[in-house]
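[step 3/7] fold_predict: job queued, chain A
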Amino acid sequence: MINPSSESRKSQDKEVPFPSCNDKILWELWLSRLHFPALVVADRLKLFSLLNDRPSNTIEIAESLSISTRGAEALLGVLVGLGFVQQLEERFFITEVSREFLLPESPYYWGGVFRAFRKQSDRHSPERLLEALHEDTSVNRQRITFEWDSNSLTDEQARLITGHIHGHSFPSAMGFARRADFDGVLRLLDIGGGSGCFSIAAALHQPNLSCTVVDLQPVCIQAESIIREYNLCDRIEVYAANFFRDPWPDGHNAVLLSNILHDWEWERCQLLLQKAFNALPPGGRVFIHEVLLNDGRDASLMATSFSLQMVLGTHGKQFTASEISELLNSAGFINIRFINSFGYFWTVTADKL
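[step 4/7] structure written:
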């Protein structure tokens, strides 16, 4: 006998169509939140140094690092997937990218980035991002540029920021030094030069070049220490100043703005490039070093992510090539050219007539 109430329920059941695509991308994205912390933890455990000295199996690694075998297995699996470690006959070896950027003895060690992340791991919460999106470019004490803009940067903040900048910028600085057009450049003014890594790289590649790194006093103290490590104090000097408010030192025939424009609003980018133009003699040159968005502002993913990072932590964003050209033209520069100098980074060069 048919139950009328059962028939009624069936007629009310909602049809659920089968998904038109799978949700792999969401799973991968959700779990990717562990990728950078895994790398930071591996660095803190000195895993890469261990494997550089002695390729090992999972049990040996767990014992050497005093972690569980289960944890070692999971961590190593992620690091293999990310390309930092490879497995051969049950032993783990570091890859070329790890040897170049993840060993403390390497000049390109990302340790400063990892230290900053451990200190500020809460900076990328959804709540912080939502707040930044609503604020747009208003001044907020949680933005990196607040301390710089207000001249309130402490020595500890300067140490952390300078180490962070040097960690991720020195490799691309060497690319800039190798590929930029230094023909006729004798004195380089490095505006907002941070650790001095771009001046260091340029001086190492150009034996007749002298540089001046301009930044806030606490940053200059850190830069001097790093410059001293490379025995370049006789060719690279530091100049403490707020590059918006204070006069720039004279006597230079090239100006460098590396990862500076992306920190600031359009109007202040115009101001910086006008100051650069005014500081240069006829025939002088300006270099801009940035990650560039495509004209649609939707690629590459690294560039769009970097731009979102700027919204979260600064007053600026990443620019397109046409936007950079517009800024340079409005300041009076000519002969604008672009070259991919290292990885995602571009060097833009322009001249003063």
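[step 5/7] annotate
The chain is about 50% helix and 15% strand.
The mean pLDDT is 94.
exit 0
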